[in-house]
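Q: Start with the shorter request: fold the first protein.
A: Done. Sequence, then structure:
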Amino acid sequence: MKTIDIKTITTGLRFPEGPAFAPDGSLWAVELKGESLVQYVGDRLQRFQVGGAPNGIAIDAAGNIWFCDAAQNAVRKFDPLTRETTTVVTHVDGVVLNKPNDLTFDSAGNLLFTCPGESRTEPTGYACVFRKNGEVKKITTDKYFPNGLAFTPDGTSLVIAETYRHRLWKGRWAAATASWQEEHIWCAIGGPDGPGGPDGMAFGPEGHLYVAVFGTSQVRIVNNNGEVIRWLDLPGERPTNCAFDPADRLGLIVTEAEKGCLLSIKNYLP
């Protein structure tokens, strides 16, 4: 595979996850085991203690940082201006959320998130949507550790990683009804024997899906046909998620949990 240039832009993070870029261009991530959100801007890292076990991140148009909290079983929101954290979603179908993991907004402003709970050996994981009208409902069930999720660039299809079955599911997304339709296994994306598999992911500027495969030291790249066409070898065995800098200053950002760092890759294209 292609040799890539990788720059470590910060270290010392306690299980980084969920990178995302804010409207002001700053890079945000979480420390799952550090109870913090982190902001990287101008080669400077700042921590914001929020408690719990923050995981994935999604940032709205106003710059609010939405994140899953696996310890508090909630979706929470952090306002960078006031530095206030509020709890937004705690239940679905009258039951407390089961360790929410990752999240993303659709084109209509609905918030989707996965809840794997402890579904490593039993298909008890699910995913939900929090609609703009305040409704919370499940969009899929019976999964083995549903994890990262991403919309295709046109917003019409949703992909969800099922980590402990080493595969990606894909289906049509109907924003008007907030429903995931015709979901099907789209890509087999192998992890190691035992723990590990596809984690967080993001679509690149060329339309391919970049998937952090936990436990493999790789980001694997999937084409529109659901085929792994190449991969990027990384330092550290535990890449957890990835995001693309819309300004292309930092290129592809990968959170890596084994070494506790943020990686920047600028020559990820073939």
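Q: Next, the second protein, separately.
A: Sequence, then structure:
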Amino acid sequence: MDLAPRVSTLAWGRIEVDGLGVFKDAKLWPGGGREWDWNETGTRHRPGIQPADVAELLAHGAEVIVLGRGMEGALGVCPETVEDLQSAGVRVEVAHTRRAVEMYNALRTGTPVAGLFHSTC
């Protein structure tokens, strides 16, 4: 099993990931990750994280997906996103980003976990 990369540092506007570099927002999965560019799917704070935002995480075999709603929780999550993931048999955890990163890092060595993290608001 490929391990998901560890988030080593989280600060306002900055997510540092071992082996991948520094991002503002990040998509991470077992064996890799990249910058999360909201413009790819037209994501905005409302309605928030869409099914299209998590499709790539599913494609990498995640069994748990952790969604970070921002440092202050300003990013929403579309109900369809959670419903689609649960229908696919994926456990979903949603939290402010600091807590979401803690959960993700704790899960990464024993579970195929992916994360979607917003580092501001």
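Q: Describe the second briefly.
A: DSSP finds three helices and eight strands in the chain. The mean pLDDT is 96.
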